[in-house]
């Protein structure tokens, strides 16, 4: 059974917390039965200021049933069931809408597979407390690192970052990072109803939108570890989508820059 309370439960010390509104950690799942219980337990233990929302895309391995069992045992755990696998971006968009509907002020994106350390949660939330609109858990700034990743995955991730910064002019070191925290009021500025990125390109898309909207984006160093169990969802179609969208956005961005430069030159004449 999905748990969809009318409002977030009162968890004792939340009334004295100086955060303006509660935070929820959104964890998309598809065939993550071997990981989800440990991930949820670690998240709840790692930070007492958060709830957890498991967004399951009708996993055939029974992840959704296990998520319901966790929700029955833990009042801070909620489940959003979706009828089919629709991609990472759609899962997070559904989580954002659910969080807004249920009164949360902050949404954290976290992988279900154990690659994101819940011990880093307080530092991501602290960055928002200090004024950030978006806090990115970064592998590629001083203090960040990647553990146990195969060389080709690391090269793909690094290469995507270099290409993104070159095409879009972003200064963010880890634009593809999936461990991040958003203020809900800042998300409303990103025109989420026009987002159509389905795979990991979703992270680049929202980073680019946040930069164009003038949001305060801060990177927090994290150590990323290869998944505990199961198979990565990364595939060729996801890579192609990211490359296609990124190239399209980059070309449009550079053309706008050229038009502005040309217009300024005409005015100066």
From TrEMBL:
Basic and acidic residues biased stretches: 7-20
Keywords noted in UniProt: Glycosyltransferase, Transferase
Keyword tRNA-binding belongs to the record: no
GO molecular function: dolichyl-phosphate beta-D-mannosyltransferase activity
Ranges for domain Glycosyltransferase 2-like: 25-190
Region described as Disordered: spans on this chain: 1-22
Domain of life the protein comes from: Bacteria
Pfam family membership, one: Glycos_transf_2
A Gene Ontology cellular-component term: membrane
An annotated GO BP: glycolipid biosynthetic process
Family statement: Belongs to the glycosyltransferase 2 family.
PANTHER family recorded: DOLICHOL-PHOSPHATE MANNOSYLTRANSFERASE SUBUNIT 1
Protein name per UniProt: Polyprenol monophosphomannose synthase
Species: Glycomyces paridis
Lineage: Bacteria, Bacillati, Actinomycetota, Actinomycetes, Glycomycetales
